[in-house]
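ok new one. same drill as before - structure tokens go in, u give me an amino acid for every spot. 824 of them this time. try not to just spam alanines like last time pls lmao
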């Protein structure tokens, strides 16, 4: 039963438009009655009193005095919606005026002339009024049911109206969806949020049964029954399907009853709990993550503890073995030196010679044992150089095949672009050989040994569980066999010195100890994967260095020669001291001896000329060997110094590596090794002396006339005296000379300056002279290279070089400079 819409017009501006609008509404089924501003109020009052108040009054705003009209219309009818229609331009001033008008309530709005949405807004306003009226009717019914006496005076009545009005606007503006059901579960009222949540048309909801709601389920019906049966309220969560998406909602069912307690109906307060669900799910997921994290951390901690305990155990054993090996080496040194001297004296007695040979072989084996012990204790002085492991492994191919026999296949896989790592090459060869021999033993007669090399990253997650390995870039050396494999008990103990599962006499239990010590000392990491009956893989990770591979000239190949210089031998083990002195005398050297630092200093201070100080690292007494070396340099600046030790201490070796420029020979050493080392040091010194004599004689003026034209020459020489003198000499020959004491320093100079000639020593600490030349030619292709060397000509390079054999004199120098001048 539609009530008429009252159309109030009279002004000129909007009248035509409104009349047309009225026609349209009429044809849409709304009864429209016209009125003028003069009679509108009376008409509305009359209809309201007759119980037929209009649902909507449309007012042409151009009639003027809208505020007054609005107030009078509202006084005549509390429920009708008042809609003022004006032109766009007037909307804001009209709104301001209406907002300031008192007592017109909340149910008014402004429509714009020509707005296509206007008809829809009119419909909504009509429906709004209907909804309010329905609620009002329910409240009236409730009032009459309660037989409440009508409010006696006007003030109380107005209060009632006001509170009703507040309640109404509270419900309709609530963000919660609210639905009121009567005792038969028919919808009495629903607010705008409910229509939005359930995607239903709000106006169509009243009168429907609750089962039309999308949240209707048998469970929902049960809750309604419980509330009808007396429960005060229930609250429950549902998943309902609205327009194809499943929405989680929460509904609070509240019972409405009259004062006698009989059931009137149920209100539903419905909330979309998607956000809460998401938060809950996240919380659950986080809790699971957290638990997972705690488990992982606990596991990692346990693993770290195990690793730590293992490395502490090995550390303790290492201290013990290191001490034993040190003493053992001193003894071996005495035996070896005496055997070698005996050998020299028994040249014409073949039987004695062969016995001596056997004894020497045994000393060698002993030396190998103690060197493995030292490796394990990380006391082996390493001489690491930038190395491509691929080359080492390829060079060992032949050796490995011979060691493993024909029935074992050897396969080598080298990954492309292999990084460079810093290792002591001799020790690394021993490591590979040791592991290959273990693999052979594990495979008994046949199988396959695979050696793989590749680049590897150890990430934070991996190294977290390890005691002492930093994350970063490594070169991986993996050695796998198809042998017997190991039990986990064996695996835990393989690195312990003397642990072996091999029969008496076959295993020493030192191979893997040495491997372990070497890897640790080189800053690396080792890991075993093994399964009984299937085989074993050892993975060794060695840290990457950013350097070019060093090509080293092998001093081991240099011929042995003696000399006539004076050597001061400082050694507290008197037997050993005697042997060394005898050995040096045999090589032609003059010797002086001291058994501690103080007496050595006395000799140095006595004014006796000494060319070389040969001292043990560890000595009793106040004067430490490093201090002795420092004083010796002060007293006799030209002196050469060579250290020796059964093992080396931090005084000389930092982190197991030699300080640059420190010369050291490890015990036990052979006569030849000592002779070469001393020979090399003294050759440098002799060269410096020769140059000094040339300078002192100053025959320079005579040669200056036919000296080569001035060029920029870079001289590289690690002996500072030799470097100074060579530079000065070349300068007197009219050359522009720059000196460097190492290959690295020379490279830095070459990066910023251009030179004509590079004159370099071959045996330099760190980068060798040959490497330097290759790199220098790379950056300055026109550079002439001259090698000064005690080892003869260098002919392995693919560019022309000249050589200046040591010792050289001025004439040699001039000659070689002229070669340097020759165009290539
Ligand atoms: P040795 O070879 O003298 O026994 P090692 O330290 O080299 O000493 O090895 C210790 C033990 O580790 C061996 O006795 C053996 O039980 C085990 N082992 C080492 N390498 C392998 C391997 N490739 N396969 C199986 N077991 C091995
Ligand atoms: Mg072994």
């Amino acid at each position: 039963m539609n009530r008429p819409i009252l159309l109030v017009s009279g002004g000129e501006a909007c009248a035509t438009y409104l009349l047309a609008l009225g026609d349209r509404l009429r044809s849409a089924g709304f009864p429209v009655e016209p009125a003028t501003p003069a009679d509108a109020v009376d008409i509305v009052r009359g209809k309201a009193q007759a119980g037929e108040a209009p649902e909507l009054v449309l007012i042409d705003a151009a009639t003027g005095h809208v505020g007054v009209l609005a107030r009078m219309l509202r006084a005549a009818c509390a429920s009708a919606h008042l809609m003022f229609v004006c032109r766009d331009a007037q909307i804001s001033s009209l709104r301001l005026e209406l907002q300031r008008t008192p007592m017109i309530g909340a149910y008014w709005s402004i429509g714009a002339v020509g707005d296509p949405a206007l008809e829809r807004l009119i419909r909504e306003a009509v429906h709004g009024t209907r909804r309010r009226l329905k609620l009002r009717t329910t409240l009236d019914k409730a009032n009459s049911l309660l037989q409440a006496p009508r409010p006696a005076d006007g003030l109380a009545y107005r209060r009632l109206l006001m509170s009703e009005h507040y309640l109404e606007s509270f419900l309709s503006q609530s963000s919660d969806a609210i639905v009121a059901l009567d005792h038969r579960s028919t919808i009495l009222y629903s607010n705008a949020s409910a229509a939005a949540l359930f995607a239903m048309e709000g106006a169509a909801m009243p009168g429907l049964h609750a089962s039309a709601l999308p949240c209707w389920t048998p469970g929902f019906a049960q809750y309604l029954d419980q509330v009808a049966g007396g429960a005060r309220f229930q609250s429950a969560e549902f998943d309902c399907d609205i327009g194809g998406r499943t929405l989680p909602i929460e509904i609070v069912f509240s019972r409405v009853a009259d004062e006698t307690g009989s059931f009137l109906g149920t209100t539903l307060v419905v909330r979309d709990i998607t956000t809460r669900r998401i938060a809950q799910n996240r919380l659950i997921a986080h809790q699971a993550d957290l638990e997972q994290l705690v488990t992982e951390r606990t596991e990692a901690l346990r693993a770290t503890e195990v690793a730590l305990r293992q490395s502490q155990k090995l550390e303790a054993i290492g201290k013990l073995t290191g001490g034993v090996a040190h003493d053992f080496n001193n003894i071996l040194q005495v035996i070896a030196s005496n055997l070698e001297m005996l050998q020299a004296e028994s040249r014409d007695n073949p039987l004695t010679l062969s016995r001596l040979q056997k004894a020497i072989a045994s000393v060698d084996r002993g030396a190998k044992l103690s060197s493995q012990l030292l490796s394990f204790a990380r006391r082996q002085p390493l001489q690491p150089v930038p190395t491509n492991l691929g080359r080492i492994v390829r060079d060992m191919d032949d050796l490995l095949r011979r060691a493993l026999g024909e029935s074992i296949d050897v396969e080598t896989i080298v990954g492309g672009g292999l990084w460079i790592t810093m290792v002591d090459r001799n020790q690394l060869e021993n490591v590979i050989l040791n592991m290959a021999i273990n693999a052979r033993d594990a495979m008994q007669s046949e199988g396959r040994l695979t050696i793989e090399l590749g680049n590897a990253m150890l990430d934070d997650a991996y190294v977290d569980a390890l005691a002492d390995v930093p994350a970063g870039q490594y070169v991986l050396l993996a050695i796998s066999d198809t042998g017997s494999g190991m039990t986990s008990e064996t695996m835990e103990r393989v690195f312990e010195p003397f642990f072996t599962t091999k029969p008496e006499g076959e295993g020493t239990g030192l191979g893997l100890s040495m491997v372990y010590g070497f890897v640790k000392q080189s800053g690396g990491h080792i890991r075993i994967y093994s399964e009984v009956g299937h085989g074993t893989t050892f993975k060794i990770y060695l840290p990457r260095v950013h350097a070019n591979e060093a090509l080293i000239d092998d001093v081991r190949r240099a011929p042995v020669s003696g000399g006539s210089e004076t050597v001061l031998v400082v050694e507290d083990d008197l037997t050993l001291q005697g042997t060394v002195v005898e050995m040096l005398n045999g090589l032609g050297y003059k010797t002086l001896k001291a058994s501690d630092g103080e007496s050595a200093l006395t000799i140095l201070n006595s004014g006796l000329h000494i060319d070389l100080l040969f001292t043990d690292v560890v000595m009793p007494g106040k004067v430490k060997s490093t201090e002795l070396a420092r004083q010796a340099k002060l007293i006799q600046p030209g002196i050469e110094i060579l250290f020796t030790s059964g093992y080396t201490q931090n005084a000389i070796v930092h982190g197991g590596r030699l300080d640059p420029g420190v010369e050291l020979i490890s015990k036990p050493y052979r006569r030849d090794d000592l002779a070469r080392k001393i020979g090399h040091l003294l050759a440098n010194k002799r060269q410096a002396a020769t140059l000094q004599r040339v300078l002192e004689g100053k025959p320079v003026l005579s040669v200056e006339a036919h000296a080569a034209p001035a060029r920029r020459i870079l001289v590289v020489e690690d002996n500072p005296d030799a470097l100074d003198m060579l530079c000065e000499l070349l300068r007197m020959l009219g050359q522009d000379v720059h000196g460097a004491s190492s290959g690295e320093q020379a490279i830095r100079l070459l990066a910023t300056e251009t030179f004509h000639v590079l004159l370099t020593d071959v045996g330099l600490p760190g980068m060798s002279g040959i490497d330097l030349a290759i790199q220098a030619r790379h950056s300055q292709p026109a550079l002439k290279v001259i090698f000064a060397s005690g080892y003869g000509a260098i002919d392995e390079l693919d560019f022309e070089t000249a050589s200046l054999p040591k010792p050289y004199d001025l004439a040699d120098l001039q000659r070689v400079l002229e070669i340097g001048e020759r165009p290539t």
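The longest strand covers residues 245-257. and btw Residues 691 and 712 are 20 Å apart (CA to CA).
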